Amino acid sequence: MAANEYYTRMGDGKRVLMTKDQILADIQAGSADAADMGGIQALDDNDVEALLEIVCDRNRTVGVEPGKEVPLTYDIGQLDFTGDNGNSGNGVDMGRLEAALLHERALGADTFELAHSDYSIKPVKPVISMEMQTMEEIQNEIVIPYFYGAMPNMGLYYAPDGPYGNPADLMREFKIEEAMDQAEKSAQALARDIEYVATKIYDAGADGFNFDTTGAAGDADAVGTFNGVEKLRKACPNAYINVGMAGESVMGIHGSIEYDGQVVAGLYPHQQCKLAQKAGANVFGAVVNTSCSKSMAWNLARAVTFVKACTAVSGIPVHVNMGMGVGGIPMFETAPIDAVTRCSKAMVEIAKVDGV
Amino acid sequence: MTDFTKENKELYDAMVAYKVPGITAAVEGARKAGMSATQIIDGLSAGMTQVGVLFERGKLFLPHVLSAAAGMKQAMTILDPELKASGETTAKKASVVMGTVEGDVHDIGKSICSTMLQCAGFDVHDMGRDVPKQTFIDEVKKGCTFCGMSALMTTTMTVQRDVISMLKDAGLRDKVVVMVGGAPVTQAYADKIGADVYGDSASETVAKVKDL
Amino acid sequence: MAVSHYMASGMGGIRTAGDLVARMEYSQNMKLKDAKAYVAQKLDLDPLEIGDEQIMRDKREELKLGVVTGLPGAPRGIAAKMNIEKLLGIKINSCDKFRQMMKN
User: Fold this and answer.
1) Which CATH number do you get for residue A317?
2) CB–CB of B183 and A289 under 8 A?
3) A132-179 per-position pLDDT tens digit
């Protein structure tokens, strides 16, 4: 390794050597990409310098200064222990009570959540009583805020899993209007199911609800979720509600579906957070996806640029999503510690997030 | 030689505006101005490429891309008689089997790529999502000389490697160009599994294969 | 992943006052700085101190807010949360449900 070279990572987790100039060029390019796509400011010279320092730190791990720590929230609940490789899970089967208390007491979790192994709204509906009894049990023991988490996952409402026509199939046949109609109907069904599941679990003592990967099935998925959150907020005024997105841009599968009079397709984090707040969320989970073929420096700069623009305008706290393949973190099941700590520090100190 | 700069711009702009009536109107205008069918198709293709780029930049959405593709299809219907009469061929460049691999249901990027390949002159057999490995082999046996596989999860990308292995076992590997893509896929991974083409985006993939 | 994030930037939950700060963010939509200032004021500490394990360990034991190691007799679950309600001036859903279940 030459004196001007630094160990860093690619977006797929591969360790590489890059010079400081190369890292700087990638930071500037990544930030410019976000600025161009989102119509936002790129990072200024101070932020670029700070990010460069973080990425080029020669230590294995980095961290924030004392006093700058943030609360950590979780997606997928105990599935990080009990789940399989697909969830970046460790494959260790255990009860959900033990998993929750271990996260609270051994992993420093500030909040946690109960999750079903089929982590979506629709599959939880028929087993909601089982989830309620587990929630009651764990709330008796846990101290930290304990949510119920699920993905809206509106794709499950389309054929073959659900009752509505699949827009992917309809669009292939150029039946665009029919595809849009089915997406709208699915969004309505999703909103109803969110109200049902979330109010039930709140009745069991949950502190609130975490919606993970909102918009994963496109703009209608996001609209269905926002409408569901509205219903939940109305029914449970004091519930803690976290709305976490699926990507930096809402996919326009429908293309023109609206929430609160605004077309949702193509919205970026600094715009998404406003809708989440309007719907009734307390915390917004900004998401920026990692590109595997770009360096961590490029990905992190891009992610920080998007999230900084979001935290600057959001009326509610922003907890940036920083799991596998998001928030600058490489898309790799066992995310390298050097990468995770650098991304974590950058998001807190430069993007000014309220949590991770 | 007549300068068709104005007509080419109108064709390009009509495609980027993605409305079928606008596209067919631009085609009629180009025909009246004396452009040949092949020249018109080239003008539309340039617009379609830009539509793909705009989709990837988040400026256009899926229904817009498909509307542009529908316009392209309509244009081909209008131009087909002239192409046949002039002896110009409408033969497809090649047959392509496309699919999201078994166990994976994400297909938006793959569908965009299929649409763009179609507009670039390929005969596309889009098998959808969660496509069994054997289906790719069967389509190659039936005559597809390009095979495109998409995977959006680290747990499903390994199926791309499996299909390449099956192509080798069936003695078909050197008869087909294998394209791979999807969020967790990289050039390094494509090289590792022996794929021929890696595309970071639909437009990049089409750019790499259209002149092969 | 959780361990890496905690080492880099996490407050540490009931090791310190991370859960309390999280409650203020969620229950009152407070941004980080305001949530920390609020919790610090309630604990009669500096915002820097609420993230300090050594200071918060005694504080949590003294105020019966729940502690992170196994200490027989230290409040857990609902008991700890009821004390947290009083400290922060908020209502916690599971405590409300508990109270509803009490007869008379």
Assistant:
1) 3.20.20
2) yes
3) 999 999 999 999 999 999 999 999 999 989 999 999 889 888 899 999
